[in-house]
Amino acid sequence: MYEDKTYESLLNEKLSKVDSKFDKREGSIIYDALAPNSAEVAMMYLQLEWMFEQMFGDTADREYLIKMAKDTRGIEPKPATYAILKGAFNIAVPIGTRFSLGTLNYIVTELIDDTNHTYKVQCETIGTEGNKHFGTMIPINYISGLSTCELTELLIPAQEEEDTEVFRKRWRDSFNATAFGGNRADYMEKIKAIQGVGGAKCYRTTNELGELVGGHVKCVIMSSDYAIPSTTLVHTVQQRIDPTQDMEGYGLAPIGHIAHIQAVKGKVINISCKITYEPRYGFADVKSYIEGAIDNYFKSLIETWEDSDHLIVILKKIESEIIDVIGVKDISDTLLNGSASNVILDPDEIPIRGEVIG
């Protein structure tokens, strides 16, 4: 807005207003008086431009975007959360018992199965680092008779604090669809506010007899780490939204609705192709890199699942990802699930990497 208000332009403007009969050359009294003033005024214009940007949601910095969103829509960034995992033990352990695995500590929070001695275990480190580690834990304090303590499964993924641009989009989207009284936006807003949910789709659905009647709503969810959610997360969402499923409105679903919470399904994509390698390279050398490239492509697809009618795994895109791997010279005869064509997924499916043969 004030791009033309630079130090040089301001100084020249001030000097131009001084009569030419006076010495205005660099080093003169007039020049030396106006130069620092021009620098200060240029800084003032920079501050004015910054303040102007904070007035609009598209350009506001995070601090002022949060203030604007809270004042206009009553929403704030989603906070970072703690990972909830399943711990398996050979004996019963008290709630509150603490364990360590690597650099992270965990605390037992809830019993899952007293016969198999499985518990919910919460990582004490906030954020997504707690989603990544599994294996044998070490008790922080001695427990008599304990010989097995394993972290076996991620139940509810942790999330980092909501990214600024993601929050900005959520704030902008809140003007386009008002959440109210069990409409689609209301279900989406309430479900996605639950820890561990990364995306959702909501539809009308049939009753137990297969009849499309009023009041039945199917909500398909994806976990916040862009994967198939655990049964624990699906159950948690069901209990929060509609625990009784009797149209009585004892959850967040309104009276007259029955909400059916389901997990997104995974579609395994097997990939075979003929790869020409650079000298001194073979499939064993590049396999992990190829799998990583494919996983990154699938993740970028899955991130768009909520806003897509159905995802399409594009064969040419797979080839493009593979050929960019170091050691790969050329690729041909690519097949996805045995066919030389794109794979169109159902609305409630996300791609899962299967076997890769090259």
From TrEMBL:
<dbReference type="Pfam" id="PF26078">
    <property type="entry name" value="Baseplate_J_M"/>
</dbReference>
<dbReference type="Pfam" id="PF26079">
    <property type="entry name" value="Baseplate_J_C"/>
</dbReference>
<protein>
    <submittedName>
        <fullName>Baseplate J/gp47 family protein</fullName>
    </submittedName>
</protein>
<comment type="similarity">
    <text>Belongs to the Mu gp47/PBSX XkdT family.</text>
</comment>
<feature type="domain" description="Baseplate J-like central">
    <location>
        <begin position="179"/>
        <end position="263"/>
    </location>
</feature>
<dbReference type="InterPro" id="IPR058530">
    <property type="entry name" value="Baseplate_J-like_C"/>
</dbReference>
<dbReference type="InterPro" id="IPR058531">
    <property type="entry name" value="Baseplate_J_M"/>
</dbReference>
<feature type="domain" description="Baseplate J-like C-terminal">
    <location>
        <begin position="269"/>
        <end position="356"/>
    </location>
</feature>
<dbReference type="InterPro" id="IPR052399">
    <property type="entry name" value="Phage_Baseplate_Assmbl_Protein"/>
</dbReference>
